[in-house]
Design a protein that fits this description.
heterodimer; A: six-stranded parallel β-sheet; four-stranded parallel β-sheet; 12 helices; elongated; B: alpha/beta; six-stranded parallel β-sheet; 12 strands; 16% strand
């Protein structure tokens, strides 16, 4: 049976109220009483029951973060940014991985709400659902990350994915590529739709460039490998001369898939990814990419969330970072 | 604004508070007519059943926690994913937390999860942690230590035989012909690092012509690897090692990238082995030889063991140790060729 606050009080020879004051960092307790209470807590192994405390006080010192894919370093870098900012404010971040699944996303939102988290950061799958909206109405602030909000009630911190897609495709066109293949998925993720739309715009602005899309079920290295295999299975003249992958994981998979079939990158096919994760520069052929400031996005999102916690009536903010083209060997011009 | 409570729901539905409570915990035992009324009141009022409150009464939760030193390392992200997949078979969700290799953050998350009353904890750590887990366990939260073998009998753990893995990496470098070998990793107080070095040292001792230099690299990231390689490039060529065993793939990938950029021919002049076989090892500039710790059954073993200890089942052993396996690729094969 675990010790409770009465046991601590008895052991320390003080009143229950004094123990409570020590636990809640009130200043009216004498240093000697604080010392005795701390010693008793240590000796008895007393843990303050946060769940019980939260029922009274209302909120925990935890922020919930829901990401689409914990295996994508982009999201873990973003989490790192949010965590370091949270630590500066004495908060902890707990992470849920929705894994591109709308039910799992809803499950995490319920759990976070039931745990009375201080607020939620979320990279939503599909649109902002009724779940998230209800949760906010009931008093848990939420900020979208990596995704601009269509619902202007929600603040968001994102990167301009459409511009990023345009930068990637425009770079391929400027380096002489004419048959561009976009690969990625699932298409109910807004970021992927926007990157494709931006790429298509760049193609439409150019002359004599074709554009096709090869959807993937998810956005992993394995999905990219399947795309690589599918391209290799075509007759050489039917292959694209450039691939724009919706993220770096897919791009690295395409690179592996093509290499497996002896197709040379960038001589025969150029590849560009998105995110600029750490591994992109260490790939077989160092990978060109579109950089998102992932850690900074995480830090910024946490700051926006804190502002909403402090003042729930404040107007929602839409913060959009500009992506940046990073050119490496995988898109070197075919002619050179 | 006051939260809607169970009393408000009862009043709105015109039933007793006890009936609402019954509905929340044993929906099958409430008449369907009352259940419908309660459900519609819950919907109308926006009532959230407080799990925290329910947990206080029932002492159960549907969440387990996983604390990892750094989820950005694909090695831990892969464990997290396989753990989640298995946990969802049991209808249990997983909360993840990053300790960033800080003792302070690790303690904070142990506290957070304990206070949130998770059913059990999965913990990967590079720090001595068994005493702290024992304290948490004695207060009612069981745990499985992942990635290092527990020393006490009571602490459940799932780990790799890192001594054997270190020996395999070193034997492989020796077998391709390396003789001036560097071990890159740190700090040596970390059990996983110390074990890999111990295995490597054993293997080197069996080859009298070989020497082993230990390069301390406490920042076990791609960036840390780049720094080590930059220092090696600054040495005269004849003082550089001809073989490197990096204690994880992140370090190895950083080393590889910087050495290649600096004009070192890999594997002809220098052979390189990593550890973990993460998703990127095979796709690196030069496909990386490494020691594979990943097993299909790893996540399943972790979750199943946690459920065994949560249910207090008597199990033959609370310690599972997997055997690692060397994967030879281009970064070592072909050493010494011109």
């Amino acid at each position: 049976m675990s010790a409770n606050i009465r046991d601590v009080a008895e052991k320390a020879g003080v009143s229950v109220g004094t123990v409570s004051n020590v636990l809640n960092h009130r200043e009216k307790v004498s240093p000697e009483a604080v010392r005795r209470v701390r010693a008793a807590i240590e000796e008895l192994g007393y843990v303050r029951n946060d769940a019980a405390r939260q029922l009274r006080v209302g909120r925990s010192s935890t922020v919930g973060l829901v990401v689409l894919d914990v295996r994508n370093p982009f999201f873990t870098d973003l989490a790192r940014g949010a965590e370091s900012e949270a630590a500066r404010h004495g908060l902890s971040v707990i992470l849920g991985n929705s894994d591109d699944d709308v039910d799992r996303e809803a499950g995490y939102l319920d759990l976070f709400e039931e745990q009375r988290v201080r607020g939620i950061l979320i990279s939503p799958y599909r649109e902002v659902g009724p779940h998230l909206r209800r949760l906010r109405e009931r008093g848990t602030p939420a900020v979208l990350v990596d995704r601009r909000s269509e619902d202007e009630q929600f603040s968001s911190v994102s990167v301009d994915d459409d511009l990023g897609g345009w930068l990637a495709a425009n770079h391929l066109i400027e380096t002489g590529r004419r048959r561009i293949l976009f690969t990625g998925g699932p298409f109910d993720i807004r970021q992927i739709v926007d990157r494709q739309a931006g790429a298509r715009r760049a193609v439409d602005e150019a002359d004599g460039v074709t554009f096709e899309t090869l959807p993937t079920p998810a956005a992993s290295v394995a999905d990219g490998r399947s795309t690589g295999d599918a391209i290799a299975a075509r007759l050489a003249e039917d292959r694209p001369d450039a691939v724009f992958a919706a993220n770096d994981l897919i791009a690295m998979g395409v690179l592996q898939g093509l290499a497996r079939h002896g197709i040379r990158v960038p001589e025969e096919i150029a590849i560009i990814g998105f995110d600029d994760i750490d591994f992109a520069s260490a790939a077989v052929v160092p990978l060109s990419s579109v950089r998102q400031p992932s850690q900074l996005m995480g830090e910024t999102a946490l700051r926006v969330l804190l502002a909403e916690i402090d003042d729930p009536t404040s107007a929602a903010q839409q913060i959009v970072f500009e992506p940046e083209l990073v050119v490496r060997a995988s898109t070197a011009s075919a002619a050179s | 604004m006051a939260r809607v409570g169970i009393r408000e729901v009862a009043a709105h539905a015109g039933v007793a508070v006890g009936t609402v409570s019954h509905y929340l915990n044993h929906p099958d035992k409430v008449s369907s007519e009352k259940a419908d009324r309660i459900r519609s009141s819950i919907e109308t009022l926006g009532f959230v059943p407080s799990n925290a409150g329910r947990q206080l009464r029932l002492g159960i939760s549907t969440v387990i926690g996983y604390i990892a030193p750094d989820v950005s390392n694909p090695y831990f992200a892969e464990i997290a994913e396989s753990v989640e997949r298995r946990a969802s078979d049991f209808g249990v969700s997983v909360f993840l937390a990053n300790s960033h290799r800080s003792r302070e953050r690790e303690d904070a998350y142990l506290r957070v999860f304990e206070q949130h009353q998770v059913r059990g904890l999965i913990v990967s750590s590079h720090l001595p942690i068994e005493d702290r887990l024992a304290a948490v366990r004695s207060r009612g939260t069981p745990s499985v230590l992942v990635g290092q073998a527990a020393r006490s009998h009571e602490q459940a753990s799932v780990s790799l035989d890192d001594v054997d893995g270190g020996r395999q990496a070193m034997e492989h470098l020796l077998s391709v012909g390396c003789r001036r070998i560097a071990f890159v990793g740190g700090p040596l107080g970390i059990p996983q690092v110390a074990d890999r070095l111990a295995g490597a040292s054993d293997a080197v001792r069996e080859e009298p012509a070989a020497t082993l230099e230990v390069i301390n690299a406490p920042d076990r990231t791609i960036r840390g690897g780049r720094d080590v390689a930059a220092a090696l490039l600054a040495r005269p060529v004849d003082l550089r090692p001809d073989g490197i065993f990096a204690v994880n793939d992140l370090l190895a990938l950083g080393i590889l990238q910087t050495l290649v950029a600096g004009g070192v021919r890999i594997p002809e002049e220098l052979a390189l082995v990593g550890y973990d076989d993460n998703e990127f090892a095979e796709a690196s500039i030069i496909p990386l030889s490494t020691v594979r710790g990943r097993h299909e059954g790893f996540g399943v073993a972790v979750v199943d063991l946690l459920f065994d200890v949560m249910e207090d089942k008597s199990v033959a052993s609370r310690h599972r140790v997997f055997k690692p396996e060397l994967v030879a690729r281009a970064s070592t094969l072909g050493f010494g060729a011109r």
